[in-house]
Amino acid sequence: MKKVLKAIAVLFVIAAVVFAAGCAGKTGNTGNETQGNETQGNETQGNTDQLQPVNPETSANVTDNTTGANKTIAQGQIVTEADNGKTISLKKGENFTVSLREDPSAGYLWKLNLSSGLSILDDEYIEGLNPENLTGVPGTHLWVIEATAPGSQKVNGIYRRSWENITGTEEKFTLSVEVG
pLDDT 10s per residue in the chain (180 long)? Predict the structure, then answer.
C-alpha cells in the first residue's frame, strides 16, 4: 500500500512539474494571425458610416530601435493619449499620425476602428529604449492616417489583450476628425 501511495505521489509531482513548464512557455498571438471577422485596412461594404476594424496584431512593420536604424513614420499633426476625446480639423487628403503607448510583450495591443472617410497609410510599432537589452520593454504604436472624405470622422481605439473578454474597464481612445 505504501508503494502505491509513493508511486501516486511521484506521478503528481511529475505532472505538476510538466504543467508548470508548459505554463511558462510562450503562448498567445504571435502577431501574424488575423482573427475571426476582423478586417485589415479600411474596406467598406456598402455602409459608408460603419467603423471598420483595423487589427494591429497583423502589422508587419515592427522595428527595433536598439539598432539605430529606425525611421520615423510620423506625418502631419501628431495625436497622442493626451488628445483623447478631442477634435482635430483637416482638409481632404491631409494626413495625421496617431501615436499610442503599447506593451505587446504583456499582450496589450491597441485595436483601432476608423470611420469610412479615414484610411491608414502606415502602421508601425517602435520598441521603446532598451539600453540593457531587457525583455518586455513597451514601445509606441504609430498609425499614419489620411482624411479621404469630407465630414465628421472618428477614430476609436481599445487597449486590451485579444484573448480576454471585454469588460468595459479597458482603456479607450477616441478622436473626432472634422474633414473640410
Answer: 666 666 676 665 675 555 555 544 444 433 333 333 333 333 333 333 444 444 433 333 333 333 333 344 667 899 999 999 999 999 999 999 999 999 999 999 999 999 999 999 999 999 999 888 888 899 999 999 999 999 999 999 999 999 999 999 999 999 999 999
For the chain, the maximum distance between any two Cα atoms, rounded to a whole number of angstroms, is: 84
**Residues forming beta bridges with residue 174, ordered by sequence position:** 156
Residue 146 CA to residue 117 CA, distance in Å, equals: 8
Between CA 74 and CA 131 the distance in angstroms is: 23
Residue linked to cell 479600411: 42
Helix (H, G, I), strand (E, B) or coil at 113: strand
> What is the layout of strands, in order, in the sheet containing 118-127?
62-63, 118-127, 139-147, 95-102, 77-79
Of the options 2.60.40.10, 2.60.40.2020, 3.50.20.20, 3.90.1640.10, the CATH number for the domain spanning 43-179: 2.60.40.2020
Amino acid, res. 157: G
